[in-house]
Amino acid sequence: MTDPWGNPLPPEDRPPTSPQPEDYPPSFASMPPAPQNPAWPGPASFSGATPQPPQPPQQPMPPGAFPGPIPGQAPMGYQQWMGPKTSGLAIASLICSLIGLLACGIILCPLGFGLGLGARASIAKSGGTRKGDGLAIAGIVIGIIGTTLAIVTMVFVFRNPDVLDNLFTTTTTTTGKLQGA
């Protein structure tokens, strides 16, 4: 045996004559077959049920073959993976915070903040079966902003009680002659 350049190969570099190494495990066909009748008869003999006739030995399946359904039984189904579900608390947090921000709600914004905190805790405990952490964070942030704006507005209105009266009375109508006409 020679290398690609025509030089003879030493014996340790030559390919083996047998395709299997010496320490290769033996084939399993040489093992004795398992006993067909177990020594213990099983629970059927103790329950008073009628003994079943012995079943004929099954033919070995070729490698990679699927056995298919068992006769007399429904085939085994599989459950389709649906993925994690969005947390309802996270959705409620975002909705409460947005409505509170738009309606200057001193009640809904803190409620959205609290729901967001609860949603983040439940998502963390779910182990990946729940999602919606971003919705919960958005509900928390909008809840904080809405609560802050509501408190600032309330303080401003209580310090200046005439601001509401001035807001509604600035649009006045004139009676009589228009000036400059």
Describe this structure in words.
With 181 residues, the protein is mainly α. The protein has a domain at 87-164. Helices cover 40% and strands 2% of the residues. It contains 5 helices and 2 strands, in the order αβααβαα. The chain has helices at residues 44-47, 88-102, 108-125, 133-159, 162-169, and strands at residues 85-86, 130-131. It has a two-stranded parallel sheet with strand order 1-2. α2 (88-102) runs antiparallel to α3. The longest helix is centred in the C-terminal third of the chain and has 27 residues, at 133-159.
Oligomer kind: single chain
Distance between the termini: 119 Å
The helical percent reads 25-40%
Beta-strand proportion = under 5%
Summed over residues and divided by their number, the pLDDT gives a mean of: 75
The profile of the biggest β sheet is: 2 strands, parallel
What's the helix count? 5
Give the uncertain stretches in residue-range form: none
Order of strands, main sheet, comes to: 1-2
Overall 3D shape: elongated
Order of secondary-structure elements: HEHHEHH
User: Using DSSP, what is the number of strands?
Assistant: 2
Rg, alpha carbons: 41 Å
The secondary-structure class comes to mainly alpha
